[in-house]
Amino acid sequence: MPTDRTWPLNIPGLAYGGDYNPEQWPLETQVEDVRLMQEAGVNLVSVAIFSWAQLEPREGVYDFAWLDAVLDRLHAGGIRVALATATASPPPWLTRKHPEILPELADGTVLNQGARQSYAVASPLFRTYAVCMTRKVAERYRDHPSLALWHVDNELGCHVPHDYSEKAAAAFRTWLEQRYGTVEALNSAWGTAFWSQRYDSFDEVLPPRAAPTSLNPSQQLDFARFSSDEHRAHYRELRNVLREITQHVPTTTNFMMNTHNKWVDYFSWAGDMDVVANDHYLTASDPEAHIGLAFSADLSRGVAGGEPWMLMEHSTSAVNWQPRNRAKGHGEMLRNSLTHVARGADAVMFFQWRQSLAGAEKYHSAMVPHAGRGTDVWRNTVELGRRLKELAPVQGSRVTADVALVFDYPSWWGAEMDCHPTDALRYPEEMLRWYRALWRCGITVDVVSPQAELGGYRAVFIPTLYTVTDRDAARITEAARAGARVLITFFSGIVDEHDHVRPGGYPGAFRDLLGVRTEEFHPLQDGETLTLDDGSRADLWSEKTHLDGAKATRTWAEGPLAGLPAVTQHNVGQGSAWYVATRPDDAAVAAIVDQVLTEAEVAPAVAGLPQGVEAVRRHAADGSRFLFVINHTDHGVDVPTRGRDLLSGHNIADTLHVPALDSAVIHEH
User: What is the overall mean pLDDT for the chain?
Assistant: First the structure.
C-alpha cells in the first residue's frame, strides 16, 4: 500500500462515526446533526453514498449546493468526511433512458430499477456514466478541507454478484482470452471433451446461464473469478479517476467479509485498497454470533495484511433484513465494537447516523434512533464515543498471532458446486467449526489466504481447501517441514485451479505431506453419525483412507470403514501434518485442536479464562502492549495483568476485574 495514502487524512486517534444521509432530512435536522455528532464524539462520516439522483436530478444537470452546505457544516463542526462517488445506485432517469445497463439473472430475468445496484457492472455504458459522476464529485471537492477519504461505490457485488447479460458475456470472453490466450488452452482448462463442449472460438462461449442439466464446473469456477474481477475492475476505474485528481487522498470501498458473502474474492482485491474497510452484521439467530464477529474481524485483518483496517458499517442494535431482527442486549454494542478494535480495526462506524423515516431500511437501527436522545441506543452511542477517545494510544498498533486459519474463496465456490459426493457440505460451516474451537481456547488467529507466507506460524489449520494450486500446496508443505503443525480436513487438495481432479488417490495435492491415501469417499446420509474409537461421533463425511507413513490417532469403531483411520498424524521435517478425514462433533474438534496446540506449544493470550471471555493483544511499534478483555458472560471475571485500564483510568496492580457483559483495555507494563 502507498505510504502516503494509508489512512483517512487528519483523524486523530480512532475514527468514529457512520453513514450520514443528510438528503433525507430538513435543514433544521441537519444543523442538529452536527451538534449531536460533537456530543457523541464523532469525527468521521460517510456522505453521498446513494446521492446520484440528488446530485444529478436530470442528465447533465447538477445540484451540488446542498452537498456544499453539508460539507461546510461538518467541517465547521470538526468532523471529517469519507466522501462517496455517489455511484452505488443509478438514478431512474438513467435506467429509463438506457435499460440496457440493467443486470440479468441466469434465466434471463432483468433486475429493474426500484432498489439499489440496478446496474450491470460489465456494461461499458454504465461505467462511462459512473466515471463521469466520479470525476464531477472529485473535481468539485478535491480541495475541500473536510475530505479525509474517498468511498468508492458501496458493497460491490453484494446484491448482484453475477450478471449474465450480453454485456457480461462479452466481458467474460475478453477475460477468458486474456487468461488463456488460445481457445485450445481454454478447452484444456475446462475439460470440454466431456459432453461435446469443445469450443472452436471464444465467440462461442457463454456465461453459465440456465441449462438443461449440470453446467461445466470449470466454467462455473472461472465465471465466479471473472465476476469478482469485473467488480474490482469497476472499483479500479473509479479509483484511478480519484487518484488522478486527488493524489494525496486515500481510497477504499466497504467489503462484506463474513460467512454469507460468497462471491467476491477479497484477498485478490487487497492490493488495490489504500485502506481495507469492512461491513459486519450479527446473525440474530446465532447464540454465538460474537464468535462469527471475531472471525470476520480476523479475516479483515488478514486481507489487510496485518495493517490497521476500518469497520465501515455495523449496527447499533437490530437490523431490518433478517427473518427475525433481534435488538442488541446490555453492553452488546460496546462489546461488538471493541472486539473489532481488539482484532485490528482503527475505525468504528455504523449504518447509519440517523434512523430513516422512509424506505426499505427504516427499521434498521442507527446511532440516533427514531425515539431520539432519551434512549439506551443514544446513551450507548455517546458512551462508545467517550471510550474510543480514551483508546487513542491504540491507533496504529498491530495484532500478532502464532496460529493461522487458511480461508480461500475459490475453494468456497468449488466445494459447494453441484454433482459432488454430498450437497450438504457448507464451506463456511467447516471454517467456523475449527475457528470456534480456537476461539474457545483463547487463541488469536490470523485468517489468511493460501498465498500467504506461513513460515512464521506455529500451527496452521486448513479446513476443506478443495481447490489448490501446486505452488500453494508446496508452500503449505514447506511450512510443515519448517516446524509448523499443519492440520488439513477432508475434501482438501482434491482439484487444481481448473477444478480438475488430481489423480492417484485423495487428498490429491496433500497425499505426501499427510502420509495417507484415500481410495474412495463414503459420505454419510442426512442424520447419520458414526462412532470413532475414542467414543466421539462424526457426521457428513467418511472415506476409505490408508496409512502411507502417517499414524492413526483415531479410527472408525463401526460401519463399513471400521478399523480404518479417521484422524492421522504424520511427522514431516521439523513439524507435522494432521489429517481429519471426517467431520467430528464439537467435543472431538476441541480435543484435536488441543492436541495440535499442545504439540505446537501455542498458549492463549491469557491462560485460565472461562469460556465466553476473549482476550486479545495489540502491539505498538514502541513496544507498548494493549490487552483487550471482552466478557460475554453473565458473571464477572478476574484477569491477571498489570497496567492502566484505558477505559476506566484505573491502575491495575496485579488483577483486573471485568464485570459481566463488560470490557476492559489495559495498557500493560
Answer: 97
Gap between the Cα atoms of 489 and 494, Å rounded: 11
Question: What's the pLDDT score for residue 78?
Answer: 98
Query: Does the predicted model carry a pTM greater than 0.90?
Result: yes
The beta strands (E) that lie in 542-662 are given as 543-547, 551-555, 565-572, 575-580, 583-584, 613-619, 625-631, 637-640, 643-645, 651-652, 655-658
Three-state SS sequence of 80-105? EEEEECCCCCCCHHHHHHCHHHCCEC
Residue of 307, 313, 332, 614 with catalytic role: 313
Does residue 197 have a pLDDT over 80? yes
Q: What is the pLDDT of residues 38-67, one digit of tens each?
A: 999 999 999 999 999 999 999 999 999 999
pLDDT at 4: 63
Active-site residue flag, 332: no
* DSSP string covering 172-183: HHHHHHHHHSSH
Tallying the residues shown for the chain, one arrives at: 669
- The mean pLDDT of 419-424, rounded to a whole number, is 96
Catalytic residue among 155, 307, 497, 543: 155
Which whole-number Å values give the CA distances from 306 to 107, 158, 312, 408, 618, in the listed order?
41, 25, 17, 17, 11
| Sign of the alpha-carbon dihedral angle for 207, 210, 212, 218 | positive
Do the Cβ atoms of 317 and 281 come closer than 8 Å?
no
Contacts of 509 (CB under 8 A, 6+ apart): 468, 470, 473, 493, 496, 502
Residue 323: all three cell numbers together? 427473518
290 — phi, psi (to 5°)? -65, -25
Q: Do 278 and 300 form a contact (C-beta atoms < 8 A)?
A: yes
Q: What's the confidence (pLDDT) of residue 669?
A: 82
pLDDT digits (tens, 9 = 90+) for 441-491: 999 999 999 999 999 999 999 999 999 999 999 999 999 999 999 999 999
State residue 2's pLDDT score: 40
Quick one: which of 318, 300, 291, 308 has its CA closest to 254?
300
pLDDT band at 137 (very low <50, low <70, confident <90, very high): very high
What domains, with CATH codes, occur in the chain?
A: 15-164+207-396 (3.20.20.80), 403-600 (3.40.50.880), 613-668 (2.60.40.1180)
Q: Is 324 exposed, middle or buried (0-12, 13-18, 19+ CB in 10 A)?
A: exposed
Active site residue 100: no
